[in-house]
Amino acid sequence: MAASPYDGLDARAFWRTAVASRGPGRLRGLYDPRFPITRDMPVFTAGSCFAQHVHRALKAAGYKVIETEPAPEGVPEDVAARFFYGTFSARYGNIYNPRQFRQLLEEVAGTYSPGHRVWSRGARFYDAIRPNVDPGGYANAKAVGLARADHLKSVAAAIARTRVVVFTLGLTETWEDRASGAVYPTAPGVIADPPAGADIGFLSLGHDEIVADVRAVLAHLRRQHADMKLLLTVSPVPLVATAGGGHVLVASTAGKAILRAAADTLMRGDQGIDYFPSYEIITNPAAKGAFHASNLRSPTPKGVSVVMNQFMAAHQTYETGPVRAPDEGPKFNAAAAATDDEDDNAVICEEMMNDPGLMPARDRAGAAGGGAG
Amino acid sequence: MRVLVLGNSHAATVRLGFAAIGSAFPDVRLSFWGLPGAAFTKARVRRDGQLAPDAGDLPSLRKVSLWNEAESIDLTLFDRIFLVGLRHGFRPALQLMRRLHPLDWGRKSGVTGVSEGFLRASVRGLIDASLAEQAARTPFDARFAAMPAPYPGTPVTEDGPLHEAVTAAIAAHPRAQDLLQLYEAEIRAAHAAHGLAFVPQPPDTVAAPFLSHARFLADPDRDGRHMNAEYGLAAFAALMAHKPPIKEIDHAMGS
């Protein structure tokens, strides 16, 4: 009798031994890095709200995480975080999808100018591309322009130093200016309103668009450094609300599936792209939902800790030799990088504002706390 | 009415004015309890209700008997308590205002452009932290009113031994008046959030943004910060002019 191709495979190849019989924090062999990410490699982070955890965790673990817009000296830590200083490699805020990332890089390069960059509410003016990095906005549109010019220089400086980008794919639903194709992280009316006459509409990105945008992002980055590497993750945080007309669970599942499939397509086509399974770790059935907070969306500190320990353990192989299981490897200190608040108020996520039930009316024009995307 | 003036060396300058205050406010029974700045920030209300110095801090213990009639004081004995002289992160706040410039006001070369909201929030954060620490040491109630440390005297902007670079730079800032308004709005809001009445430095004693008139300095040749008895009287009068809510006074007086 011929041997089955499954005969002799590692225990990790079988659901029974690799998932069902293991504790949710003790999954092994989930991730075989294609390329090293060592502590001396300049790392650029971006992505949806979950990426804030990644940035914080890498920093806490001593990785060389780029920050060209760090908190100014003397500013209280919580204030700096509320205004997105030191939250990502620059203050672009949450980048929920690769179209947003692509347009940022094109704007930095001077090859693209998003339409309707300044939105307003009452007498306050907001950078439509990152409306929550200054929660109360500015007193005038000119100030928004000055701040954006400074920011774009900071992004350029960050990219110039980057060797590896860790990008968390968050959402497929977004809002687009029909004329310029610009996408915005919030819908009109959530934080601010676009100028009269602007044609801003709902856009649901598909697999091929996600793939094309990520490839364009990487092409831009490789103009800086030909050997630029990209580590993709998919946020395990479901949609807070869908504008697509259907049920949020179905929409969220479709969105995550599209992002996960796109990551797979991208990885297959480019040796410089890797995928880290944070989505799988948080949502794996063995966890029985334990890595989600009581809102069934935000990851718990424990979940974030398990994710980052998997990452550290895998990348230790490039620094210290043989692979160690996550529970034997260097420990990521969740307390240093996550929050004890099970509703995860340590990350700032304007997507939360899409659900009026989650936001007191008085806060709808201000910062939103809570994990999403 | 029993009134306690409580605080650090700036509260002690109010005590300098006690004779004049006694004449101006004959119905007030004045008391003072204080310690030098660092020691005062270690004093706290004990479980028995007495405000006392840090028993483990030798300098505090040495100073407490030099400064006060009693080593500890029962805050429940007073109808009103004037907390005087806290700096509320004044110097770090000035440093922030020197290094950061609101783009809402236009570009200023050589400094980091930020939103006015961010500068406000940063200043507020410093004040909040200071107030939270003080509240933990001396829980506030409606009897309390607070007047921060006075702004330094104008000599600190001049060359010489009293020169203070940061204060001088902010006082010379082209938007100094706007910065003062920003700072005072945040300090007022922070006090309100902590349930503590805020009484600003008497306007007549302010010479320019972030600066007091030199004539109120106790020793203008050697000390650019501490004020004299005339200032003490003006400060006390301003604190007395602040009226806490009637209901709260009744409660505090045990009626």
Short structural description:
The complex is a heterodimer of chains A (373) and B (255). With 373 residues, chain A is α/β, with parallel strands linked by helices.
Commentary on this structure:
The complex is a heterodimer of chains A (373) and B (255). By secondary structure, chain A is α/β, with parallel strands linked by helices. In chain A, strands 1-4-8-9 form a 4-stranded parallel sheet, with helices on both faces. Chain A has 10 helices and 9 strands. Chain B is an alpha/beta fold. In chain B, strands 2-1-6-9-10 form a 5-stranded parallel sheet. Chain B has a 3-stranded antiparallel sheet with strand order 3-4-5. A two-stranded parallel ribbon of chain B has the order 7-8. In chain B, strand 3 and strand 4 form a beta hairpin. In chain B, helix 5 packs antiparallel against helix 6, helix 5 packs across helix 7 and helix 6 crosses helix 8. The chains are: A alpha/beta (373), B alpha/beta (255).
Shape of chain A: globular
Q: State the separation between the terminal residues of chain B, measured CA to CA.
A: 14 Å
Please report which band the strand proportion of chain A falls in: under 5%, 5-15%, 15-25%, 25-35%, 35-45% or over 45%.
5-15%
Count of separate DSSP helical elements of chain B? 10
H-E order of chain B: EHHEHEEHEEHEEHEHHEEEHH
Q: Which word captures the global form of chain B?
A: globular
CA radius of gyration of chain B is 19 Å
Structural class determined from secondary elements of chain A: alpha/beta
Number of strands of chain A: 9
- Give me the number of helical elements of chain A: 10
Low-confidence residue ranges of chain B: 247-255
What share of residues are in beta strands of chain B? Answer: 15-25%
Q: What's the oligomerization state?
A: heterodimer
Alpha-carbon distance between the two ends of chain A: 50 Å
> Biggest sheet of chain A: strands side by side, in what order?
1-4-8-9
Flag low-confidence runs of chain A.
320-330, 334-344, 364-372
- What does the main sheet of chain A amount to? 4 strands, parallel
Helix content of chain A: 25-40%
**H and E string of chain A:** HEHHHEEHEEEEHEHEHHH
Summarize model confidence as the mean pLDDT of chain A.
Answer: 89
Number of strands of chain B: 12
